[in-house]
Amino acid sequence: MEKLRRLVNEIAYAQDHAKLSPLQSSIIPLLSFASSVYSFTLSLRRSLYHFGFFSKHRLAVPVISVGNLTWGGNGKTPMVEFIAHSLADSGISPLILTRGYAGGDEARMLQRHLLGRPVKIGVGANRAATAASFFEKYGYIDPRSCKFSERISIDEKVGGHLKSEQIGAVILDDGMQHWSLSRDLEIVMVNGLMRWGNHQLLPLGPLREPLMALRRADVAVVHHVDLVSEQNLKDIESEIREIKNSLPVFFTRMAPSCFFEVGNVNSEVSLRTVCNAVLLCVSAIGSADAFTQGLEKLGACHVDQLDFSDHHLFQAKDIEMIRKKLGELEAKFNSKPIVVVTEKDYDRDSEILKLLHPFKVLVLCSKLQIIPHRGCCEYSFKKLLKELLEVK
Q: What superkingdom heads the lineage (predicted)?
């Protein structure tokens, strides 16, 4: 299955199908047929919503959707966390609704990062039902319905953060294709490194919807901009504006802050630790190249990588493969390499990574950062959120 996923991914992002291997070319007709079926199903589902056969559920508080048009690596979860922090800092207690896909690694990472904040995380495929259960348990209040002093009872400031049990907003993680829930703000994340691939729908290409779906967006965010050439960024922005010229476009990157050791989540290891070191980047995320390129900027003498499909759950055979690669690197450079993984990989299964002992395994911690661009900056992004939650 892992090999098949890799083959499909290579086809989806191939610029020239004439350069594909015979095996890849042989499965294109099957993928094209499946893509046509997916397109028909998507169109039918859209029509059923449009004509009212399927109804949309409206929640009692503002809903901010963070989604994308392509599979994996678009920075959705870091953006969800960024918004949750922003709302919490403003005294709004948000509820994050996530599917908990493939073992819930993203939900666990969010729980670690938001520990101690007035943020709730609801996991479940039926987002409306999950929201209803949290509203019943904690209560809710629409921040647009009254003044701040009236709408939220603040017990006290703890550690500089406001405490409030009542839910004042919902953040819909991976919400663009979740049409059954109405939203007040639609944020679309774009992977600057990989863009739209071959512009085909799944599974022939990486698109979950046609690019025209950008017309539904209120905000577009191009992610990994620090790893993309200026010309490519201009091309991406131009493509977006051809579809919706009025769409504000923000630029973001993942800013590394520190590492921690797999055996001690509370440790804090300096980024300087990997200077002049031999690194093996092991990841099962949507944009492994972005992870590797970010580490190359930290000054390692050599960076190698082992990539698995997004959300892949590491098995014993994978650990053996990693150990074999580490042995090869150690023999080649006469230096013990360091394994570096992402927080998502750690939260998926931290215990299995301990089997790589005696090799050091570090987890890279990074935060989403908004890069100023044509008047679109962190301040203006937070202003958008504030306007959404203002009294009407």
A: Eukaryota
Domains along the chain with CATH numbers: 63-248+376-389 (3.40.50.300), 255-367 (3.40.50)
Q: Which residue has the tokens 């479940």?
A: 124
Q: What local confidence, expressed as pLDDT, does residue 157 receive? A: 38
* pLDDT mean across residues, the chain: 92
Q: Roughly what angle, to the nearest 10 degrees, separates helices 22-50 and 2-12?
A: 80
Residue type, 5: R
What Cα–Cα distance (Å) separates residue 97 from each residue in 117, 171, 172, 173, 325? Answer: 16, 6, 5, 6, 38
pLDDT in tens, 246-291: 999 999 999 999 999 999 999 999 999 999 999 999 999 999 999 9
- Tell me the residue type at 259: F
Would you state the torsion angle of the CA atoms of residues 291, 294, 300, 303, taken in this order, to the nearest 10 degrees? 40
The span from the CA of 297 to the CA of 61, in Å, is: 42
As a whole number of Å, the CA-based R_g of the chain is 22
Structure tokens at 40: 């028909």
Q: Compute CA 35 distance to the chain's CA centroid, rounded to the nearest angstrom.
A: 24
pTM of the model: 0.93
The structure tokens listed for 8 are: 């499909």
Cis peptide before 203 (omega within 30 of 0): yes
